[in-house]
Amino acid sequence: MSATDSTLLSASDLKGQPIERVQRDGVEYIVLGTAHVSRTSVEAVQALLATESFDAIAVELCDSRAQGMRDPEAFKQMDLFQVIRQGKAGMVAASLVLSTFQKRLADQYGVQPGAEMKAAMDGAEARNVPLWLIDREVGTTLKRAWHSVGFWQRFGLLGGLLASVFERETIDEKEIEKLKQGDLLESAFSEFATESAPLYRSLIAERDAYMAARLREEAGRSVTANPCKVLVVIGAGHLKGLCEHLRIQQADPSNTVAELAQTPPKSQWPKWIAVGLVLLIFAAIGYAFHRNAALGAQALRDWVLFTGGFAALGALAARAHPLSILAAFIAAPIKPFRPGIPAGGISAMVEVWARRPRVADFESLRDDIVHWSGWWTNRVARTLLNFFLVSVGTIIGEYAAGFHILKSLL
């Protein structure tokens, strides 16, 4: 193919693509909006790289996501014991669920999730130019989103994640292109994201400001007297917001990055409500013993049966090993006296010990969890499911026990 033919092909690939050019502090940013699962977006990245010369390439990726693209097999080294002990089981499960949303789309058209980001990364390596990873860590974004909404709205978050697993409707490629009007995380949480201002701020608006500040930060580190030209590849849902911030931001970029990268402190009121409930229940049990030893023994038995029983049901629903079910039953009633790892964590660690995940489970994990049944057949996924269901069962059991014990005393 001649140089002229290549130019014409590149121009065709860029036709209609959302591209903006922003001048800031002597730097020209060519910002390309993409859909994260789209052949057209991959071709647009390749066309820009073929037709223009860049001094740096920036992508909407954080370190962990970029590492996952560079080494897709890295998650096989995951230590489930450490994930559970460090309280990261929920975050790992959420990240896996989000990956199923991408893979479900990608499997229909043979385009790997984030292929346009991979094309930009490969382009930076081939041209020996700096690669800037400008997005906020996905774990931080999810935590800020979780803490930004109220108790009941969090069910919407969970519902959005679960819907992305169970949804099986075939999506037309034209609809995939419409993802250029949104964002991957926003799409995964469906309409809930657009209807919740705090959630939208955490998933979209904050990241717009963060990525604009990261661009300025990186440009300040690398640019001296000479202006440079930077290709920025982002989801098109961020195009307008990022470009606006890039034009008007005045605060020191490092301060903006540090502020938006902070993990919000855990809200204390759910903890105090839970502590208050437990204290109330045990006060009721103490009162029952004061009234009558048999009545007190019955109240204590109810506490064990309700908390242990619902936790065990959670493990049973996850098809856990019998020892994991027994561990859930034992750990849940003594939770108030055993701060640290929750009952779900103890049951999950027993599950890992009793049914140690095989290499094949890690190798097939992402493929298995695309289908809901895979959460029960893959040992890695089942361990995470066990953790979640036992934790939920323990909470339900505590409220059910409290209601039953108080009712028996009235």
Total individual domains: 2
Q: Give the distance, in angstroms, between the N- and C-terminal Cα atoms.
A: 87 Å
Label the structural class: alpha/beta
Sheet of most strands: 5 strands, mixed
Describe this entry's structure for a reader:
There is one protein chain. With 410 residues, the chain is α/β, with parallel strands linked by helices. The chain folds into 2 domains: 3-260, no CATH class; 269-409, no CATH class. The chain has 21 helices and 5 strands. It has helices spanning 3-14, 39-51, 63-70, 80-85, 89-109, 115-127, 138-148, 153-166, 173-177, 184-188, 191-195, 197-222, 239-248, 253-260, 269-291, 293-317, 322-331, 343-354, 359-368, 374-377, 379-409, and strands at 19-24, 27-34, 56-59, 131-133, 228-235. The chain has a 5-stranded mixed β-sheet, with helices on both faces. A hairpin with a 2-residue loop joins strand 1 and strand 2 (27-34). Helix 5 (89-109) crosses helix 21, helix 12 packs antiparallel against helix 14 (253-260) and helix 18 packs antiparallel against helix 21 (379-409). The longest helix is centred in the last third of the chain and has 31 residues, at 379-409. Mean pLDDT is 79; it is low at 1-9.
